[in-house]
Amino acid sequence: MFNYEDLIFKIKELNPIDSVISEYVKLKKSGKSLKGLCPFHSEKTPSFFVNTQGGYFYCFGCGKGGDVITFIQYIENVDFKDAVEILARKSGIDVKNYINNQDRGIASIIFEVNRFSCEVYQNNLKKNQNVLSYLEKRGLSRDDISLFMLGYADGKRTLLTKINEKKMRIDDFIKAGLVVK
């Protein structure tokens, strides 16, 4: 039995990001990167870039970015585990050799609550000009902030408020270590 990290590594190794994305987007060489029209929003000028060395994509138009698994999540409108399974099937990997069903369910929940928390904190950062100015003084551009998915926790229980608004299970956030009782 292999572990989950081995599975993710193998999937990324067997599914180069440029090969996967080029099935959905016409990519052209642009310096060290590839560029194309973003599949997630309407545009006339390419703002969607793929960095093959780093194994990530980023759209400067809509701000979506991530690795090959994240791309499949967005383009196929599936959760993390389904994206992993799609890429595993595509490359002939038997997921059952890597993870049991209970672990898969827990991993999926933890991923989703982390994704949700990341979005909350990213949105919070976008609304806070003082923190944005501080980060820019530290040498981070707006593109860097988006690319690395930086966020800001303001200490005002923003995450808890959003969890309650969306009627999500607080226990899932506790299990993920994002919230304490």
From TrEMBL:
Coiled coil: none annotated. InterPro entries: DNA_primase_core_N_sf, DNA_primase_Znf_CHC2, DNAG_N, DnaG_primase, Znf_CHC2. One of its GO terms (biological process) is DNA replication, synthesis of primer. Its cofactor is Zn(2+). Keywords: DNA replication, DNA-binding, DNA-directed RNA polymerase, Magnesium, Metal-binding, Nucleotidyltransferase, Primosome, Transcription, Transferase, Zinc, Zinc-finger. It comes from the Bacteria. Residues 34-88 form the Zinc finger CHC2-type domain. GO terms for cellular component: cytoplasm; DNA-directed RNA polymerase complex; primosome complex. Pfam families: DNAG_N, Zn_ribbon_DnaG. One of its GO terms (molecular function) is DNA binding. This is DNA primase. It comes from candidate division WOR-3 bacterium.
